[in-house]
């Protein structure tokens, strides 16, 4: 997260584009939602909510209880989860 956010904090407190931070964090596979705001006198506050996998999906993906399929880095795959497979539109619709 620090590696993602650090290059985007530029031009001081007022010049930093919060939407760029939010978009970059939202693109990370484990991030479900993120809120970014300014807090006077000089903080940028990030509230980040992580996806919680309930099962492995096919070979490389994970799936949440809400049916959201996401692909973590290979080193981030959670062991000991149930393994599900199949086309998503037949399982989660």
Explained architecture:
The chain is built from four helices and six strands; from the N terminus they run αααββββββα. The protein is an alpha+beta fold and 93 residues long. Helix content is 23%, strand content 32%. The mean pLDDT is 87. A four-stranded mixed β-sheet has the order 5-4-3-6, with no helix packed on it. The protein has a two-stranded antiparallel ribbon with strand order 1-2.
List keywords for this structure.
93 residues, 23% helix, 4 helices, 4-stranded mixed sheet, single chain
Q: What general form does the structure show? A: elongated
How many strands, what sense, and barrel or not for the largest sheet? 4 strands, mixed
Question: Which strands sit side by side, in order, in the main sheet?
Answer: 5-4-3-6
The mean pLDDT is 87
Structural class: alpha+beta
Give unreliable regions as ranges. Answer: none
Spell the H/E element sequence. HHHEEEEEEH
Helical fraction equals 10-25%
DSSP, total strands: 6
Rg computed from alpha carbons, rounded to a whole number of angstroms: 17 Å
Distance separating the two termini: 32 Å
Number of contiguous helices: 4
Strand percentage: 25-35%
């Amino acid at each position: 997260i620090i590696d993602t956010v650090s290059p985007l904090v530029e031009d001081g407190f007022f010049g930093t584009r919060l939407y760029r931070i939010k978009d970059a964090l939202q693109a990370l596979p484990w991030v479900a939602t993120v809120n970014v705001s300014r807090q006077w006198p000089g903080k940028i506050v990030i509230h980040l909510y992580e996806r919680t996998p309930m099962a492995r999906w096919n070979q490389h993906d994970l799936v949440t209880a809400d049916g959201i399929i996401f692909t973590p880095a290979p080193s981030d795959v959670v062991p000991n989860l149930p393994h599900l497979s199949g086309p998503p539109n037949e399982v989660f619709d």
